[in-house]
Structures
1.
Amino acid sequence: MTMHPVYTQPDDYAVPGAQVLVFATREAMAREAARRIAEACRAAVAQRGVAALMLAGGSTPRRTYELLAQEADMPWADILVLYGDERMVPPDDPASNAHMAHQTLLSRVPIPADNVLRIAGESGDAAEAAAQYDAALRGVAQERGLDATQGVPVLDVVLLGMGDDGHTASLFPYSTALDERARLVVPALAPPGAAVSQRVTVTLPLCAAARMVVFLATGPHKAAIVKEMVTQPAEAARRYPAAQVVSGGDLLWLLAEVDGGAGEGALP
Ligand code: 6PG
């Protein structure tokens, strides 16, 4: 019997152009996220012989990655894994997004090393690392025959998180990186108090070309930001980089524990 995901689509989360699913628990959200990512990757490989999956950093995606590693019948030999952003630290540093993805997913699946395109956080020079990643991303897209929209590689799945200030990847509020339309990857500076200040991040055009963009966000504060995208879309887009993200295909927001605990969002 197919288990239907335990989620609702409340009207006060009806973000224009997006589908917003509210889950009672993080676990339910992670299960649905892993299922949809796996489904999209299998379909991409079946239709075009390759899938391009861009991973998010931070802590929210951890459980999704652990569950994705358990998905059966995944064509890992034909799945390219990219990163939406990275902190300028070595890959074995606990603050590294590549470190988290390796621990929870990539060390658990038979993915060829050449299929994983890591941002060189160890290089010590964010501008250089960004330029290298931009070139490498475009190169692998060409080599592996990814489609392109106006010269921008079309990724199959772009996974994103959102910070409490509405940042996504390492696109921070009021950053000039938000206006970047030519480069796909740029250096970034996180605000004081962030885990690591020197960063590398993808830019909005790469998300806008993707077939599916999936946000994962938990807790009442982030839920309130999503509600603002409904009630004050222009102000939300000005204040929150995540609100500026569009997709070339599906835009999906998966929320959990919007009231602070397992409660609202659970189907009866
Ligand atoms: C990063 C992430 C960042 C993250 C948000 C949410 O490098 O920090 O790419 O955009 O998704 O900060 O982080 P949490 O999931 O830990 O709340």
2.
Amino acid sequence: MNAVIRHDWTLDEIVALLNLPLNDVLFHAQTIHRANFDSNRIKISTLLSIKTGACAEDCAYCAQSTKNETTLKTERLLALETVLNAARAAREQGATRFCMGAAWRNPTDHNLEQVIEMIEGVHALGMETCVTLGMLTIAQARRLKDAGLDYYNHNLDTSPEFYGQIITTRTFQDRLDTLERLREVGLKTCSGGILGMGESRRDRASMLRQLTNLPAHPESVPINLLVQIEGTPLFGQASLDPFELVRVIAATRILMPLSDIRLSAGRSEMSDELQALCFLAGANSIFYGENLLTAPNAAAKRDRELFTRLGLTFETVAAERDEPGGCHRSEYIHD
Ligand code: SAM
Ligand code: DTB
Ligand code: SF4
């Protein structure tokens, strides 16, 4: 009952979930969450931008688009050793998964081989790997799978109806096609979206419907709150009612009972109380570390204190238990 996996949700059903009194949707989501997860355990991943800025796409939210007049310093693909040093530092801080993001519309085959060296190096440190590199061909998806990649992040970002107001240089269908290729080769997927871009509640429901009605639910669903970047068209957008974020997380938990739900970008602007409500609503994963890709994240010290105050545990890779061949065991700590 608490892990009914459906792929046939109607838009009205999802809107109805978002319209519930907050206590009711929270109770429903928390009941499902408890039945399927340790409700006091949070997974943490650390992000690194391995290629920054100078992106030809026109995503209206993004600091990295050449179409947006931001002050971002661009950076070519990082050297392998730089990436591995960052992964080691993230592991020391307790991250179990290292996510590498590149500001590409899609990688070239040469780019992909360079990133594969990074994936193999991070694996050898005993960490899970995730990359987000833009659109992929089926051959590229297969190459990543064969190289041992764990997760590929590719977001739908918003509803198909609102999408055209946010991005014009690639279509919603392009995104669905990449997700299909990932599934076809058996890669685990991380796919979600962004809230607070001026979309309606119905758009939010429609985005969730797209995710939950995919042939398989993404293993990981990032819910980002727009980080407003000066120089982007979305800078100055009216901020979202924080309870709407909680409702969306709760609905996501109800719709995708077994997926990890990541409270992603935007935490640095959230109060501790709002984050606590998001965990109650079923979020069980965060980005941890001082930076997201180009924007600051919630400070790690603040996160550790918040976890202690809430009695949450987070999974760490114990460095001293690192085993040859890249195997690792995890343990749960109270920090
Ligand atoms: N270039 C690749 C792509 O677009 O697929 C990968 C990197 S891109 C930065 C990854 C995701 O980060 C985007 O799809 C979007 O959901 C999220 N993102 C980017 N900028 C953001 C912002 N300012 N606020 C919230 N989320 C953001
Ligand atoms: C995701 O859904 N959010 C992350 C990750 N996947 C790649 C990226 C957030 C980016 C926030 C803005 C920035 O740092 O530029
Ligand atoms: Fe480029 Fe990705 Fe940013 Fe869009 S979201 S501008 S594709 S880096």
3.
Amino acid sequence: MSFKEQQVKAKNSAESYWLEQSELVSWYNAPKNILSTNQSGWTDWFADGELNSSYLALDYHVEQGRGEQIALIYDSPVTNSKETFTFIQLTELVAKFADVLQKQQVVKGDRVLIYMPMIPQAVIAMLACARIGAVHSVVFGGFAAKELAIRIDDAEPKVIVSASCGIEISKVIPYKPLLDDAIELSSHKPSSCVLYQREQLAADMIDGRDEDWDTLMSTAKGIAAVSVKSTDPLYILYTSGTTGKPKGVVRDNGGHAVAMLYSMKNIYGMNTGDTFWAASDVGWVVGHSFIVYGPLMAGCSTILYEGKPVRTPDAGAFWRVCEEYKVNALFSAPTAFRAVAKEDPDAALMKDYDLSHLKRLYLAGERLDPATYHWLKDKTQLPVIDHWWQTETGWSIASTPFADGSNEELMLTKAGSAGLPVPGYNVEILDAYGEALPANQQGTVAIKLPMPPGCLTTVYKDEERFKSSYLSMHDGYYVTGDGGYFDEDGYLFIMGRTDDVINVAGHRLSTGEMEESISGHSAVAECAVIGINDTLKGQVPFGLVVIKNGIEMTDEEIAAELKGKVRADIGAIASLKDLIIVERLPKTRSGKILRKTLRQMIDGQEIEIPSTIDDPQVLEELSPRLTNVTS
Ligand code: COA
Ligand code: AMP
């Protein structure tokens, strides 16, 4: 079927289209009920299907005779180590760790929180949870103790799996003190923690709570995958919303498996035995979908890269990995390639490597800016595909598809565009009243319900928030939180968030969370954090702070303390660029801070001053201080 035919079929006959796609999955019990509505009014996909996501990613391939094929490649320039695992080896390790979890009293439906760096044990722990029907919740290693504590309290894990340390460029980050602090801060306490001791740093263990990974594995016996319902949760992944509290995106098993296999074939054009590399982190959705589940379910070799695009050791790192493992498709964030282009503008280091196996480059996490698109296309001479998605969907909403289903001939890519809506996603651009806008007019990007398989099923323990965040703005639509437009050829341009979420080096962060951290300082009366443009990281946070009367600290001292506080509360990834101390913040008469206006002033754009502004004089006072802000 051509792409266009697929789009039409998925729109007009969603059930039969997805029934066909579901046949890619090796179910224990194949579903007959394809699309149904559950008690909370949301779509259930494949409700009566039964399967196991760990079985699909591992045992299934061993049964198919691919046991000796490499499943997982661990490449770690920061520790100078490399390791490969065949499907047989990975299955054995996962089956054993599933036994470890069971012996820690983890049963189907229990949550297991995984706070780990990019090491194979993280993947093993995720797949072991899936094997016994436990629900994993991976927390990105860059988050600080307070953020971790919030997630512990929300997910209420029975067990936490962690490691002694993470390794960043030339520095060791001790994870264990962060974990201990987080458990101290949280109201919920796990019954045990399983800790993987890395040779770079040994962690102190707490008697009666902490268990050693290697010791437990040495006596573990491999156990088989259990059957779970299609609608049973596979994982919870927290993502930033507009408030200080992250949202626990819940993913099911069945819809997710179908979406993963569908994506590997139709979006990435991968075949069994190919090598797929998503240079991301298992703490983000890209890592869940396309380091772990997608490639393994599709019988591909996947790469777990513990390094950076630059400085580990140089800007040729990505090309070195592509050559060494004969990577067929590479997926990364635009910021990574901006870092490479900055250090090696002529891509001289690329010439040292044989990239003949590399067919296509995929970019996501933020908009692929036209300059980086052209640089990549020019230097690699490969198709460069920007594709748009979010934690909530788990796979791409828009991409540049193959024209005819042969997985060879791509449709046209356009600089600055995330491509065409993928079959199953009925994307519309709406105005404030929910009316569809014509081509070239920017509005809210929304998806007409039902969503295709694999998308979030709810916000964990918060049905109301699920509805208010995504469904209540426009009846019958999921609202993505992004703004954008279609051009006259139906290509979608995603131009940025319409809410207070920002994207810093491909990491989704909430300015509300940073404001909460800053407001928590005793000297602060009020503050606003906005995302400002940055040539490397896309956006970086910038703060404006009003100080209480009578505080005897210099502005510099306060700024340094506040930057340190954001780092300690959220993590180094928050990278608060700078902050200034101001007399007043611009607000509407109802007290809402005019963040968009502030952003426009800093970015030198035309300023839209809302008619509801309380005192326009505030903007005039601020103007000279904001025009000098550069990133
Ligand atoms: N654990 C602990 N700390 C972490 C971390 C982790 N997993 N990841 C990042 N950090 C820390 C860094 O060490 C750094 O700390 P510092 O300020 O003390 O030096 C800080 O967080 C900021 O890191 P980062 O955002 O990575 O910036 P950078 O300047 O070190 O590197 C890039 C810039 C562009 C090379 C890097 O951000 C990058 O590779 N981005 C790609 C991101 C990506 O793949 N996102 C997934 C989307 S698909
Ligand atoms: P996350 O949930 O962390 O994956 O972040 C999702 C958000 O990142 C989206 O809502 C967009 O704002 C942004 N994003 C991701 N991919 C793209 C893209 N290809 N183009 C534009 N924005 C993107």
4.
Amino acid sequence: MEDDKAENFEYQSVQVLHGVGPAVAEKLKRLEIYTIQDVLFHLPMRYEDRTRLTALGSLQMGQQALVEGVIDHCEIKFGGRGRRSLLCYLSDNTGAIVLRFFHFNKAQQNNLAAGKRLRCFGEARRGATRLEFVHPEYQIIQSENSVIEKSLTPVYPKTEGVHQTLLKKISEQVLAKINQGFLIDWLPEPTLRQHQFPDLVDALSHVHRPDKEANVFALNECKTREQQRLIFEELVAHQLSFLQARREIKKITAISLSVSKADYASFKRCLSFELTRAQERVIAEIFSDIDKGHPMLRLVQGDVGSGKTVIAAAAAMAVINSGHQLAIMAPTEILADQHFVNFEQWFSGDVCLLLTGKDKGKSRQQKLERILSGEAQVIIGTHALFQEDVAFNQLVLLVVDEQHRFGVHQRLALREKSNFGGNARTRKKNIAPHQLIMTATPIPRSLAMTAYADLDYSVIDELPKGRKPVNTVVVSTARRDEVIQRIEKACEQGEQAYWVCTLVEESEVLQCQAAEVAAQQLSSELKKVRVGLVHGRMKAQEKQRIITRFKNREINLLVATTVIEVGVDVPNASLMVIENAERLGLAQLHQLRGRVGRGGKQSACVLMYQPPLSEQGKQRLGILRETNDGFKVSEKDLQLRGPGEVLGTRQTGLMQMRIADIVRDEHWFEAVKDTAEHLIERHPDAVKPLVRRWLGKADRFVNV
Ligand code: ADP
Ligand code: MG
């Protein structure tokens, strides 16, 4: 009995711990902490060294430190914009610092009286005259020998209502029992030896409570052997879950679609251009996938302008010829419209249908009927396609375009809903649609294999012939007049241009207002130029009307917000000006720039910034000037911003690992793959517990 209990301890509810009742357990759920094991694998994200006092005189800028001193005096100062701050001058016999508080009350102010001895923990920053601590944690010291911490202080990821003290208290209780043998170390002995990894219990004890002698710098960079072991194990768990998902796919049935040589040849004859070799290769990969009788799950990555749309069209052709249905989902109405126009040209008859939020009432009802009857075979739309109660006749392929714009969470949501409103014919038979996911986010291959390991992966690594790289220049707004002249000249010569307005604020209203102001100003400055305006708050029809006029060259200069980032394809446009370019991410700038350089003409992109530009800002914009290659841009972007931002996962919490970082820890990838495969073959019993341990409830990959 006793033994049995010990064995299952890791899976018991946190409520068996002292001080954890139903209310606290409820709060812990927000951190995905349900069981004892979850407590152990809720790992600190950084460490603070509060084990020793640092003399004020030896404090370095940027250093986090525990200091102690006596208050010399306090005063209230008024800074810029009438902002009050409380300054408290603290000194010991080696030096002095300032404590700065922007928020304080009377009681606090009275408490910080001259002569009192304070102990503070904070980060030293440069102040006007000496180093400062802004809003440090502090306590007033009564006796000379009050205790200080004995081990480094772990700092846990927390959330509202869950404080560090609680997380410390519960981990303390679990760590006290960690040696009782309930935790199974699933990593094979030889792997541990090969990489000189400590065992699991040692690794966890160290990571939660590193002793005083541990190197806090190494810990904060995740460089200790103990951390490396946990990083490795976490990556293995993710890899296992991907491999598992792939095996699940193989068990599911999909409609097999085969394409004859003759059909493919006649499809190619309809195009107004020759496919590139890269496009042909990717199409062949897709044709081979959809022929197999299991759902295709393929990610096609191609730089902006590499010609992804026609790849979707080739897949559509296979579906149409087989008499089934496909859906194409685009992130914006502009792009959905654009696709609809293209597909209508490629596929004659009445098989294409556009369904967006603007379809209402009777017209919508008619469209839904055409979808249900199967009369409409190519259904193009925005994500409204999902939210609405759309019932398909027999959906066999789902294409998601520009998936990076949807975010990773939506990709998985898609997957879950892949029955997609239900298929009149297939729903009951456990038949899943094929999925083709297209993205312009050019991520390095190794990273793609980690981030999208559950997908097959194709790259279009070649641009259509005759494309000339876009000339990119970086100029200050001080040179706005020159830029205006340049636009005037280009338009005189029959060329067309974009003027893109950006804003820091998330507010779409402000962004649209800024674009309106810019459009007015530009039309008064450029008398001979026909200026048009498009932004996100315009009605879809109005947007479409303006873009069509731009396409037909009735408008020379299109002023726009970033809504044109995807879906505007006007090959004659050869000049783009981006205002306040320093405010946008590199990937987004690259994507915007992709709107020009689509024809055979030499195109240019002017990145205009508001001075002063920071050193990093200069560096970032410089990258775009140097290269037109989306891969290179993205690599730099990764270095500067980290994978969460680039892959769009930061906000969604997905792919967010507990301790591993797919960029920093990329060098483990090969070894991780080997270990995962070894475990599946030799220790299949390890797979489930490892995935559960690290992915917890987030193990969403089983649902294909
Ligand atoms: P992406 O979606 O990858 O950014 P698109 O599919 O919108 O790119 O294609 C960009 C432009 O290139 C379109 O005008 C398209 O018609 C054209 N295009 C695509 N493939 C080729 C090709 N092989 N040769 C010439 N032009 C092409
Ligand atoms: Mg596209």
